[in-house]
Structures are given as structure tokens and as C-alpha cells.
Amino acid sequence: MSDRLRPESVSDLPVSAGALLKALRDAPPLTHCITNAVVTGFTANVLLAVGAAPAMVDIVGESEMFAGIASGLLINLGTPTPEQRAASLEAVAGAAASGTPWVLDPVAVGALPVRTPLARGLVERRPTAIRGNASEILALAGLSTGGRGVDATDSTDAAADAAVSLAQQFGSVVAVSGPIDLITDGHRVLRLSNGHELLTRVTGGGCALGAVMAAFLGAARATGADALTAVASASLVYTVAAEHAAEKAAGPGSFAVALLDALASVSPADLVTAGRVESSVR
Amino acid sequence: MSDRLRPESVSDLPVSAGALLKALRDAPPLTHCITNAVVTGFTANVLLAVGAAPAMVDIVGESEMFAGIASGLLINLGTPTPEQRAASLEAVAGAAASGTPWVLDPVAVGALPVRTPLARGLVERRPTAIRGNASEILALAGLSTGGRGVDATDSTDAAADAAVSLAQQFGSVVAVSGPIDLITDGHRVLRLSNGHELLTRVTGGGCALGAVMAAFLGAARATGADALTAVASASLVYTVAAEHAAEKAAGPGSFAVALLDALASVSPADLVTAGRVESSVR
Amino acid sequence: MSDRLRPESVSDLPVSAGALLKALRDAPPLTHCITNAVVTGFTANVLLAVGAAPAMVDIVGESEMFAGIASGLLINLGTPTPEQRAASLEAVAGAAASGTPWVLDPVAVGALPVRTPLARGLVERRPTAIRGNASEILALAGLSTGGRGVDATDSTDAAADAAVSLAQQFGSVVAVSGPIDLITDGHRVLRLSNGHELLTRVTGGGCALGAVMAAFLGAARATGADALTAVASASLVYTVAAEHAAEKAAGPGSFAVALLDALASVSPADLVTAGRVESSVR
């Protein structure tokens, strides 16, 4: 998957991310989201703000065909009703048949008995990308029983081995969200240190990032960028926008509003100015 | 339906809309909404802001009786779960039995296989009003297969014939949302050119307008205003408020917040000052 | 239940509330919410803002075990789908088995035929606290058929006897929200007159308070505060924050944003400065 990602390209991530951001805004990717009831509206607003076209289609009988025409797909397991569980399986089948890239966000996997086997079954379907906090990535890799609900109780570095292992086993790009975002394709490991603590004080701060990853994967189909670049670009755009938002925020409420404004205004040049990316090879 | 709407009354739409806005605030209409999971909270906040009383009752076994006591009803097909599909049919039966005016918003009709036959069945029940973007109105009239999801890929003018045809066939007021809002009862055609592009960057920007139409139809029962006036008044209030909001917005996040503030503060006098309405006869 | 609440302690409610707020922020209680689709996101944001850890787990098969590990539980009946109804019964069983305190918010009980028997069945399970507006408390006590949907059509004082009666019958702390919040354990009665009218112009203004009560009950397990103090503390923190927010708001949209900011910044000292509490004994 990472043939095109040469070592020298990593230092260019902010430049690549800027090009992909421009491509996304020029041709908004139809981003199909099956996500949890808590963050549906915020996720759609995040996608609209950054320049993508959200479609929250989570109905059985519609999800397979829609995943086939979408540019990218997100499956988020935050509140997996029976209808959403069936729709998720449909959508993944539709994505597989059409080559639509898709992101799995295994919210609270490990501790909870319905979503945990569902997440394990979905990861076997080889998602293009997996996004979670450290506890979720450890639990998905079978190395932990997960945090308590949506909290991360493990550090990003503690999940690095699990992330690389998952990436190698399933051919996925794995993104571990935290104070430092770790993103790996199983060979190369990127660490992004942009972002702001207020992202953890807004519900959907992580879930919406999964949707942005799906949108960037959709945009990358048109430009030929690889999946690692697309996922890392989404993280960089999102976390740089979060830094802009934090400058204007008086607390978590005004931060969430300012984040939407910042996602609409963040520019390719901003990514070059602000991006903090390190890379290594496993 | 439009006996009371004489040609000269059209130039008075801003005045009529102001009177209806005042009546709505003096006696908040109980507005029953069965709407999609993405916009439920925003829709309720829009109704509260403008002065109506929202009630998001979408449970089987409660929807029929509640539609009977409500002042107005919205059926929005954005995320039609099996529970919502059954509740919608219940609610429409309750509305019909009690004379409660109701609005159908056939989100993404045409492309998607579950909601499309549902929408076609509901329109046969003769909604008081139908609201959609151009692609949805064309698809509902059977003249197109719809856009891709919630995007409008057709222009308002392209949907004018479909809107008039739907209005004549089902006795509904039909509203086509877009840069220019076209509203028709099948005979008279109003074009409103208020509004702002940021409405398309906020999820629920259109869906919430459907709820406001249901609220104004509820208020119109008390004042004796006809359905065309009620629907056009809702559009005018909403789009003038959007213009006020855009003046204070730094992007889509702050725009959504300012829209709620503006819906609470917009006055009858503002409508007269800012309203841009044209009319014609088919 | 109120052995520890002596008469003199009531005048110290602002001090007790400040201590509990500090305890909550030092050890964020995992707050399990089964709540309605309209306010899920806002409720989670309110909990995050004040310092708690929300988890919106409303799936059958997960709710019982999760209520057992949570610090506090909210059951809100605003949009009780079949899945949520079954999950609520599971969760209450889990809470009972583990001693997890739980709050019942019987939204729109009385008028609506599905939630009304559900609420009556749940109250028999002896919730730690019950929160509603005056109409809902009267309906739950069997003294009224409820308001029209979520509106309160009765005054707080009219519900005082019903609140005391419910509290005595089920061993619950009962909170009646309104311009004055009345909170009773069936013996002592507290009246809090903080707050702001804009809370009624934001959807979830009351529902989110129920979640904050569950969080404070969770925090009280660690500090040994009793349930009356915990519920009253939640109300005081929330309504003092609302006053702070109203000072910065230009309308209901900016108020909701400012409320989240204020919940994050409100301090124990603010409660002492601003708190307005009266007490009596029945």
C-alpha cells in the first residue's frame, strides 16, 4: 500500500496535505457516514465545514448501494443499534464491491459485549483505515480489554505496537488519536503533535476526525495519493484547525463553534506553517 | 386552497409574514416533528428560537394521537428507520383525522430505495406542503432519479414545472429551496431571493426550514392565513434571519449559532425592510 | 436517606456544592446516559464541560453491565424507541445490582401512551432521583394527565405536594425544574432561584440537567454526600452557570454555547457568591 510513500515524502506531509485539501474542496467527496447518535450532527457539520459532502445513510436496504456510489465511508460503532449493525455490514459489502475506501472507528471496543465482536468481525473485512484512541487500538488488537467507555486510559506510545500489528495483519492504515497522533501503515510510523486539549472536551472530537479521514480517502482516489498520506492529511488539517480554534475559544462550547469556522478557513499554507510531523520506520 | 390569496396580496407578503410571526410568538404552535437523526437537536433549537414549541415524537404508538393534538406536523425522511417509517404513517393518519397541517420533506428521494417508495406513498396522502431542493422535487415528481444524497444537482428553475405539477396533483403547496426559493400552490408562483450561501454549509439548514413551515402552518390555523402565505412566510422569516446571521458569522460554526440568535430577534419590520419577493401566475 | 442533612447544612449548600464540584472534576464520574435523540450531543457536551465523563450507551446487551461499572446513570424518556425501552430496563437492573445511583427523567409523561406506563414502571424501581417539570411530576404522581408534550403548563408550587409524595413513596429525591427549582427528599424542601429564562429556549436545557444530577450523584458516592445534596448541587452549579452564560448571550444560540463555556469555568467560589437557596421542612 505504501509503495509511493518514500522516506523523503514524509517531510512533505504538510505540502501533500495542502494539495489534498485543495482537491477535496474543488471536488467535494460524497462521504457516507454510519455513525453514533451522539455526534451525527456535529460530524456532518465538520464535513461540510472542511469542504466535503456528508451523507448520513444508516438504513438497512440503502446502505449497500449508497456505499457503492460514495467516495468514502465511515463506520463508527458508538451507538450500534441493531439497524446500524446490519446497515454497517451492508455498507462494508458495498464498499468492497466498488472499491470505496472505508474507515472503522471501533468506539469503546473491548469493554462492551455487543460492539466488541462486531468490531472484530469488521476489522477482518480489512478497512482502509482504523481510527481509535490508544485503549481502543489495544483492545482491537486483543492486547487489552479496553478503557471504560470512550475514555482512553492508555497512552499513544503504549499502543504503537498494537497499531503496527493491526496495520500489518489487515492491510489498514491505523491512526491512534491522542496528544500525539500516531499513524502507521505497518511499516512507516508518523507522529503528529498538532492539536489541542479542548478536542477532548467536545463530544465527537475524535469521531468527527474519523469522518474527515473517510473524506480525505475519497479525495485521494482522485489525486492518486496513498492511504497513509490521506489519513495523515486529515489528521493534520483537523488538528491545525483545532489550534486555530483554541486561540478564539473561551471554553469547550466556543471551541466547538470555532473549530467549524477554522475547518472552513484553514489553508494549505497554514499546514506548512504549523504542521509538526515526525516519521520513523518499523 | 388559494381563494384568499389575491394578486395584490403577494406584494404584501412581508407584511403578512410579520403578522403571522407575531401570532406564532403570541401563541406558540405545538410543532410535531418526525425528523432525521442528524438534525433533530438543531431543528428543535430553530423552532424554540423563532418562538414555536417543538415536540420530537417519533415513536410508534404515540405519533398518531400526538399529531392529532399538535398544531402542525413535519415528516422528514432523512434517516427513516423502521420505527420512524411506521410512526410517520401513524402521524399522517392522525393529522388527516384532525385536520393538522403537515409538511413532507422527502430528503434524498429518488436515489435511495427505502425512502423513495415511502415518499411516493406519503405524497399520495396529500401533504399540506412539500419542501425539498430542486433534485428532490424533480425526483418526487418522477422527472429525475434525484441527486446524490442530499445535494441538489439541479437548479430551482429546472424544478419549477415539477413543483407546479406536484402542487396541482396533490393540492399541496410546494417549496423548492435554493439560492432562490420557489413556492407555489400550482397557480401562483412566488420567488424569494433572501438567504445566504452559509445555509448550505450547516447540516439541517434546509431540514429545519421544513419544521418552521409546519410551525407557521400551525399558526395560520389560528389567524386564517392560507397555506401558501404560511409557507412563504416561514421561508421569508428564515432567510432574512440567515442574512442577519451571516453579518455576524466568521464561518459555518458561528453562522449556525447566529442563525438561532437571529431567529429569536428578527422582527416584522425586518421582513418589510429586507424581503425580496416576486410573484407570477401559471 | 437524609440522616446526614441537618437543618444547618442547608445554608451551606453552596459550600457543599463547591466541594462536590471539585471532587467531580478531580475524579470525573463515568456517567451512563440513555437519553433522547434530540439532546444526546448537547447532554454529552454539558457533562464534558462540567468535568464528568459521559457514556451514551443505550444498546440492549450492553446497558446492564455498563450501568454496573458506571458511577451514575440517567434514564431519560424523551424518545423511547423499543431498543431504548429494553435497554433502560436492563440498565436499571444493572444499577440496582451494583448500587449505581440513577436519575429518572420522565419527559412528557402523562399525555403519551408508550412512555407513561414505562415511566410508572420505572418509578416503582425506586430511582435515586427524579427530575421533571411541574407537569411531568404531577403526571407521574397521578395527579394530572401532563402537559402538552415537553411544555410545563403547571407551576412549580402546584407540584410541591406531588414531589413530596413521590419522594416519600419511592425513597427518591425529586427535583421540579422551573423558574424556581424545588428539590425534596420527602422531608426537607429546597428552593433554588438561580437560573435564566434562556434555558427554556434551548432544547435539552432541562434534559442535560438530569445528566448533571447523575454525574453529581456519582461524585457523591466518593465523598459521602447524600442524594439531596448531590441533586441540589447539580442544580445550583447548572443554574449559576446559566446566569454567567446569559450575561454573554445575544440570544438562544449564543446562550447554549456560553453555557458550555460557563459550566467549564464556574468555580466553588461562584456558587457561594451567587447561590440563592431557601429551605423548609414538610
SSE layout:
Three copies of one chain form a homotrimer.
Chain A: H1 7-10, H2 13-26, E1 30-34, H3 40-50, E2 53-55, H4 63-69, E3 72-76, H5 82-98, E4 102-105, H6 115-123, E5 129-133, H7 134-140, H8 160-170, E6 173-177, E7 181-184, E8 188-192, H9 207-223, H10 227-248, H11 252-265, H12 268-274, E9 277-281
Parallel strand pairs in A: 1-2, 1-3, 3-4, 4-5, 5-6
Antiparallel strand pairs in A: 6-7, 7-8, 8-9
Helix pairs in contact in A: 2-9, 2-10, 2-12, 3-9, 3-11, 4-5, 7-8, 9-10, 10-11
- The CATH homologous superfamily of chain A is called Ribokinase
Give the oligomer, counting copies of the same chain as homo and different chains as hetero.
homotrimer
| Helix-strand sequence of chain A | HHEHEHEHEHEHHEEEHHHHE
The low-confidence parts of chain A are: 1-8
What is the share of helical residues of chain A?
40-55%
Number of helices of chain A: 12
Beta-strand level of the residues of chain A, as a percent range? 5-15%
Shape descriptor of chain A reads globular
Number of domains of chain A: 1
How big is the Rg of chain A? 17 Å
Task: Profile the largest sheet of chain A.
Answer: 9 strands, mixed
The total strand number of chain A stands at 9
Placed side by side, the strands forming the largest sheet of chain A appear as 2-1-3-4-5-6-7-8-9
CATH architecture assignment of chain A: 3-Layer(aba) Sandwich
Distance between the termini of chain A: 15 Å
| Overall pLDDT of chain A | 93
* Major interchain interface with per-chain residue totals: A-B, 32 and 35 residues
